[in-house]
Amino acid sequence: MIHKRLSILVATGLIGATSLLGAAPAHADETENSEPPTVELVLDVSGSMKAADIDGETRIAVAKRAFNKVVDALPENTQLGIRVLGATYAGKNKKIACQDTQQIVPVGPVNAVQAKNAIATLKPTGHTPIGLALKKAAEDLGDNGSTRRIVLITDGEDTCTPPDPCDVARDLAAQGTHLVVDTLGLTPDEKTRKQLVCISTATGGTYAAANSEAELTDRVKQLVDRAAVPPPVQPAVVTGTADCTNAPLLAPGVYTDREKISEHRYYRVAVQADQELRASVSIALDRAINPDYGVLLKAATKDGRELVRGLDAGSGRTDVLSAGLRWSADEQKADAKASAEAADNDATEAAEDTDATEVCLIVANSFASNVVSANGMPVELSIDLVDASHVPDAPGLGRGFLFLLVLAIAGLLAGILAGWVTRYWVATWREN
Known about the structure:
The protein has helices at 4-12, 59-73, 94-97, 112-120, 130-141, 165-174, 190-203, 213-226, 329-343, 345-352, 400-431; strands at residues 38-44, 79-85, 101-109, 148-154, 179-186, 207-210, 236-237, 253-259, 264-272, 275-284, 293-300, 306-314, 320-328, 356-365, 377-387. With 432 residues, it is α/β, with parallel strands linked by helices. Residues 1-28 form the signal peptide. InterPro entries: CLCR, VWF_A, vWFA_dom_sf.
């Protein structure tokens, strides 16, 4: 069993790249994102925003001032859009009310005057169709391959389910479009907090609460600024299979996939005779998981013989569960050579000539959840191939034997001399 810390050590060193024989499989894109920060602010303008419980003012008044301050502080190259929900329909027809979301500022270079004028006209009105607003916001941002952020600001939970906003967030994450949803709760109650945490967790975003204008302004600025910082590594999207035969062949890099509860995912890696495979897997727990769960990362031969495994398990709340392993091709070569020697010399030569071993990486989990979803959980798989760490032979004495002999003779002479001196001293003491 690989110790839990190994996964952390492995993950820090898995960005190197080496070439494999044959066609090059997909690898992680490590180029720096040159696209400007792209973000859409989604503001709840439902009837509950009339409540005057933030510093003696209504929530909408505080939100408007915070928005204006944020717009003034935005970097010039920011691509900004603003969408609202529950802002126009005050009637009792819930079917109509739950379609009430509009983009009031299209995504583009910041126009402070346009943004402020659009925000100034907002009045708390209707329902809270968060799920629909998230879908529409994703469409507003499009998909140019760069990371985009939605910042959702609301004072309450969705009142228009379905669609459930957590499921919408999982659907967006499963599309692999690098879309992150950050959520901000205005004086949130516990039900609202749980829903907002669920939304942000599903997409790798963050959740924060704000109970004052200063807190709201601060949080929104932080989230918009974060959109300008590209992730250090953009994982390549890969799809594991149900067996090793048809599994994708992966080069060193970082990959993303999705795995359903209790599912097994297979991938292949070609390991040269002088290389060591280091791999780690992390699964984000984007929904409530029952106690006593685990993640297993296993390396095996194509015929199913297990080579090494790394696992991690838990029973309490955590956001990510990881496991890691390392395996050297020397181990496989030694096993093959030993087996071949037991058979015949021709097989021995064949074992020695083996250039590469195709290893199957298997990702498995022991999750159980009451939340049923067609989308699996986010998986990040890191792979690296490094020079094999050869186990040194047992140390021989070599020239050290002569040194040991000198030490032994010196010790013997010192003992004899000490004995003579002691006898002389005792004899002299008795005479006196």
